Prior knowledge:
Blueprint: E1 7-12, E2 15-20, H1 31-47, E3 52-57, H2 68-72, H3 83-106, E4 111-115, E5 118-120, H4 122-128, E6 132-136, E7 140-142, H5 156-159, H6 166-175, E8 178-180, H7 181-186, E9 192-194, H8 197-212, H9 216-231, H10 234-248, H11 252-263
Parallel strand pairs: 2-3, 3-4, 4-6, 5-7, 6-9
Antiparallel strand pairs: 1-2, 7-8
Pfam families: ECH_1
Family: Belongs to the enoyl-CoA hydratase/isomerase family.
InterPro entries: ClpP/crotonase-like_dom_sf (IPR029045), Ech1-like (IPR045002), Enoyl-CoA_hydra/iso (IPR001753), Enoyl-CoA_hydra_C (IPR014748)
Amino acid sequence: MSAYECFTVEIKDHIAHLQLSRPEALNSMNKAFWVELPQCVREIEAAAEARVIVISSTGKHFSAGMDLGVFSDSSALPMGGDPGRMGEALRRLVLDLQASLSSLEQVRIPVLAAVHGGCIGGALDMVCAADSRYCSADAYFTIKETELGMTADVGTLQRLPKLMPQGVVRELAYTGRKFSAQEAKALGFVNEVYESQQALLDGVMTIAAQIAANSPLAVSGCKEMLNYSRDHSVEDSLKYMATWQSGMFRPGDMMKSFQAKATKQAPEFEPLRPIKPLFE
């Protein structure tokens, strides 16, 4: 794996553990973060060694959200000059930031978020793009942007209404109030709440191991279909499923599963093919 400023990465037993690694800055999302996150997850995906990604963090909080230094950097924030050109440049910047977090959805393997402490502002946008979320009892979440005088713009307002009741999401967005681990669990935003940060990581790694033990082709197909069905009608999703299955379904992995059950051994599946640059 490449060296990153904002993350450490370890791949073991087909699980990629990606940790936010700037605890002294509360793992705030600086300029390097937005560039490195998609690079990192796509490097993991391309290598095809990992079958699931676990994102956790270090220090007191998961992440304090957008580093305020990004807003004060005139080279990063296109303010001033002709209003039309400024608006066009700002739109492209927001689209780039959105694309950085959308990489978690777009990679072909599941992404599990393990959250402790504060998950604030842009960090909430990020975990909304994960496949599943888990947290420790001390975790809390907030759409902080509202309190700061702006509208959240990189995914929370688009994804959270598909994960939680609409009325609750509106309340959280309009008020900017914190919601706790227990409330997040009751609303279905997180799958499970663990007593401590270590228990959280142990529990999520156990789930990741269960995912990694399955056929990577089957799991990748699940993610593709679930993402598609979220954004399309049932009828369109069923048709897409039939088309996908006609091209991707092969009996080899099923036979390996049956044989493994018969011999009471763990099946060994062929990895997905690595993703290489065009014409390499």
